[in-house]
What we know:
- By secondary structure, the protein is α+β, with helices and mostly antiparallel strands.
- The protein folds into 2 domains: 2-89, no CATH class; 105-162.
- It is 45% helix and 19% strand.
- It is built from 3 helices and 6 strands; from the N terminus they run H-H-H-E-E-E-E-E-E.
- The chain has a 3-stranded antiparallel β-sheet with strand order 1-5-6.
- Strand 5 (148-154) and strand 6 form a beta hairpin.
- Helix 1 (2-43) runs parallel beside helix 3 and helix 2 (49-62) packs antiparallel against helix 3.
- It is globular and about 50 Å long.
- The model is unreliable at 1-9 (pLDDT under 50).
Amino acid sequence: MLSxxxxxQRSKRLQQSIHQMFGCCRFVFNHFLKLWNDTYTASGxxxxxxxxxxxxxxxxxxxxxxxxxxxxxxxxxxxxVADIFDRFFKKKDKAPRFxxxxxxxxxxxxxxxxxxxxxxxxxxxxxxxxxIRFANSSACDGSLLALPCVVMRQANxxxxxxxxxx
Length: 166
């Protein structure tokens, strides 16, 4: 009975960590989107990815709660802002909008570095989150060979996905 209680507590802590990861990535995205919009309205030119990426550690230092999430996921949020503005300036997309926590679809992207992402049967290991159970729909040899891993939450169900390169 005690082990079931511990598993229940672990799942609550894990769920809280996952929600924190989604929230921090959304905050970084919105922060740099605002910064980019302000710079664009003031000077007529946007920022570059490198400018935003160099400001990310300062942002992370001023908000203590960002230190407990994956830094690669935060960098991917900054990369997403840069990509969205590139598509906007090439007239491929509409103007970027802020992300809302009320949107039922939340996601973050992380990348494989030094074996920080691994698959073992029906569990996936994610940075700063640890091992998470998931429905493995394709056979896997235990290691991910792809760079990005997108974790998406839709209707309180997590969907880790990755493009596998061979």
